[in-house]
Amino acid sequence: MSKVIEELQKYARELVSSGLVVGAGGNLSMRDGEFMYISPSGFDLKEIADHQWVKVHIESGQYEGELRPSSEILMHLECFRKNLSINACLHAHPTYSVAVSSAGKEIPPLFPDFPAMIKKVGYIDYVIPTTSILAEKVSELVVDTDVMVMRNHGVLTVGKTMKEAYFFMQLTEESAKVFTYSSVLGSPRILSNEECTALRNLSTEKYRAKLLEK
Ligand SMILES: [Zn+2]
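# zinc ion complex -> structure
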């Protein structure tokens, strides 16, 4: 089994067991040279066999084999086309991130890892999933954004590795969860811009590298 398929299988199962996706919701992909492998349409992520990942040519969008790629293929393709440093894309429908963003709010920095690890979070107002309109919005943001929160839909994260993209997804959802609980208890104290900058300066490469060690 290739390294790429091995990674996809590992994180597809982690996504389901962590509760970040439910049923057939969510999809993930990884770059492999001029191709990408993406989850097939209509599958529970934990039930995909090694040979069922769909191989798609990134530039032309043409795919091989009998299984159809995830219906959200267009935004994955745009990520790999527009940002050559990205090797992994992850899309899920995590409860708290969808809840907070659908209330018209942004997910604020309440604890150090969120601002320290994620350089930019972008927000996309609701558009119909799977459409080229959504792919276009993603393609504008992905140039300099790690996390794209789609209101009334879900979250898309990208990374140099799948481990990084997965970590960004976990951090985003954890932040949305903490914000929700904190708002129920009172008025959350949000980390200031100054505090976030200090965290980024302190942390940057060393901190990120340490947390993302294999
Ligand atoms: Zn979706």
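# post-check
The CA atoms of residues 163 and 212 lie 7 Å apart.
The beta strands are 27-32, 35-38, 54-57, 88-92, 121-124, 147-150, 154-159.
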